[in-house]
Amino acid sequence: MQLIDGKATSQAIKEELRSVVQKMLATGKRAPHLVAVLVGNDGASETYVSNKMKTCKEVGFDSSLLRFDPSITEEELIQEIDRLNNDDKVDGFIVQLPLPSHINVPKITEAILPEKDVDGFHPINIGRMTQQMPCYVPATPKGILQLLERYDIDTIGKHCVVIGRSSIVGTPMSILLSRNTYPGNCTVTLCHSQTKDIGSITKQADIIIAAIGRPGFIKADMVKQGAVVIDVGMTRITSSETKSGFRLVGDVDFKNVAEKCSFITPVPGGVGPMTIIGLLQNTLLAAQKVIYKNAGSISN
Length: 300
Ligand code: GUN
Description:
Elements: E1 2-3, H1 6-26, E2 33-39, H2 43-59, E3 62-68, H3 74-85, E4 92-95, H4 105-111, H5 123-130, H6 139-150, E5 159-163, H7 170-178, E6 187-191, H8 198-202, E7 207-210, E8 227-231, E9 235-238, E10 246-249, H9 254-257, E11 261-264, H10 271-287
Parallel strand pairs: 1-11, 2-3, 2-4, 5-6, 5-7, 7-8, 8-11
Antiparallel strand pairs: 9-10
Helix pairs in contact: 1-10, 2-10, 6-10
The chain binds guanine (GUN).
Residues 94-97, 119, 139-140, 168 line the site of guanine.
């Protein structure tokens, strides 16, 4: 069994990003600028966003955090989004999810200019992804693809079982791994809450991507000997052993599953750090106008 070290991989990519930023600055360009919009004070979102901002600083990106009260109306939030869409000094921005229930998430996602949608959630970016056109690939699947690539994991013709159909992870992951490229060319099965007898399906998997948010859901008897297991779960549970009072638990019963695997990601230190990398790489692409080449000054 080989552990897939997302922390070390993310550190190596951070070095690469840092040196690209330094070259940009040396040629008179400004650093890439990411803005995060945070509505309300959900504990997990606070942690995720503060890690995103911290990592921006580490690689030399500019970053800004815009906080709004949970009572903000949908119209007010869309006004803020319009302002960011039209701000030439903002390369990309994200609206951290979840949002309060009175705000319609698809409406907010659609209000973000595709050129600045570094989460890759806008229907145009998702559509382009399905067509294998240049797009911002959602950060978590993007991070997972890079782990598979950097660990030279064979995906061609493999049966990949994705568990969870969220628009942030499961759905884009299933599309990406079925594309005719590497990492990809998998035969993909997407399991979700209505799937019957998930264990009988996961047992046939060469690659399992668990993204359901249920601690320890994947047990050893659900995994084939030699499988690759990618754990996207990040449930926060209270703990007296950590300074924060929380610890992160994955979707995989790591202790018992690990010994059956050829490769497995730990939690923490697996997919989590790579998600931030995916976001920063998208922000760099936005600053360099790689995906939408003519996206220039869009104000007025
Ligand atoms: N909430 C959980 N993951 C994400 C993410 O990748 N992007 C945004 N915007 N919100 C999230």
